[in-house]
């Protein structure tokens, strides 16, 4: 555990700051860097994991897959999924930078029409015209995969997808909204070093010597407490190297622990569905039935092919290219997405008894707008016990999510049967060419399903008449003063695309909501090849 800088002589009974940020992840790093720009503002970040500074295991983007199921990972299990895969471990990062220090850093702007849907759901002020201009405040270096990292097999995947499906090549997925296309992703990374441009690298590393910024690392927040005036101002913290202590916020508590740990912390503190909390022996502070509800994710399946031998070694992170398809012309955006892996991802197919090729590639069709909704809840009042996660995968009544996976497996086969990708492939190993009917593809696709690690929505914001909304549109916790939530749990719905950039945008806007600073001017016409790096 480390405090940076040292908090001084009074021990840990009651350290006080202007702002206390619970969670040093993607959003927390943005808030910490921005709020501490004011030298008179004391900012503290409570982060359960270690620093990423100088840690090549974390900083090397291509090593992301080796961080799963390690000490950098909280590894949250799911409850039984009758129509999905019950063996999924949801990776949540235990390191400074959060999931931006842990994931593939695939970086997409949200689609404008999705933000308008947020507004219609009660999130006033989160329209595209307000939120998207914050792209020019991002400090991360975000750009399409560099030419040197573009593996020939990924190039041939893009060519085959374009030819097989008659979709366009997309050179920059962030240049303008699109409905379909294939191309190389944009990543938050430095092509020269292969290092991440995570939230911690981009926002915190340059400012960690600020005397008004304190990082309490390997320190786990497990309960919020009221002060004498009844406001939630204090956080109980379990330190790695000593007794528990409290940290007090004199202005606001900012919860940035993510879509699992933020609602978990609220419920442990007595804020959530009252009857459930009382049943666990937790004193209820505020009855908010929406805490833990609306659990969202991007489920995906996988189809694997063996290649004749090892592939060329160059890559940014082994899943550098992708494909978007719009099956329904009435949809304003894509309704099916594929990542193309230059390695065989067989974690779930091995469990089904299917062979693992020594060399291979795979496609992972995923459901960009899943209609299934889950929830999380506490198993006990013990802060050390992990919560129960029920994503209810593939349970939407219309069967949309299941249909999307079946269509995705069929479309993946079309692409694989098209040159020049076809020339790399020896045989399909999962599910195998004999699996052909809709029923067979559905059974396989759901049992081999995985997650793109995008939980969201569990403390969603909404309008005054929305009984399920946990936050108001200013991100303030309903029924309490001085507490806001800033992470993916605030989303009313999950973006079609990988949501990290949306979290960054939400955090940048949250700083303005907290401080009263004016937002950025409307974005200039046209796009840019590079997002971020203080483009103002």
From TrEMBL:
Residue span(s) of domain Glucose-methanol-choline oxidoreductase N-terminal: 258-272
Signal peptide residue numbers: none
InterPro entries with a match to the protein in the record: FAD/NAD-bd_sf (IPR036188), GMC_OxRdtase (IPR012132), GMC_OxRdtase_N (IPR000172), GMC_OxRtase_C (IPR007867)
One GO molecular-function entry: flavin adenine dinucleotide binding
Entry binding sites for FAD: 95
Coiled coil: none
Keywords for this protein: FAD, Flavoprotein
Flavoprotein recorded as keyword: yes
Cofactor: FAD
SUPFAM superfamilies: FAD-linked reductases, C-terminal domain, FAD/NAD(P)-binding domain
Region described as Disordered: 517-536
PANTHER family (UniProt xref): GLUCOSE-METHANOL-CHOLINE GMC OXIDOREDUCTASE, OXIDASE (CODA), PUTATIVE (AFU_ORTHOLOGUE AFUA_8G04090)-RELATED
Entry's family note: Belongs to the GMC oxidoreductase family.
Protein name listed in UniProt: Oxidoreductase
Species annotation: Streptomyces bathyalis
Lineage: Bacteria, Bacillati, Actinomycetota, Actinomycetes, Kitasatosporales
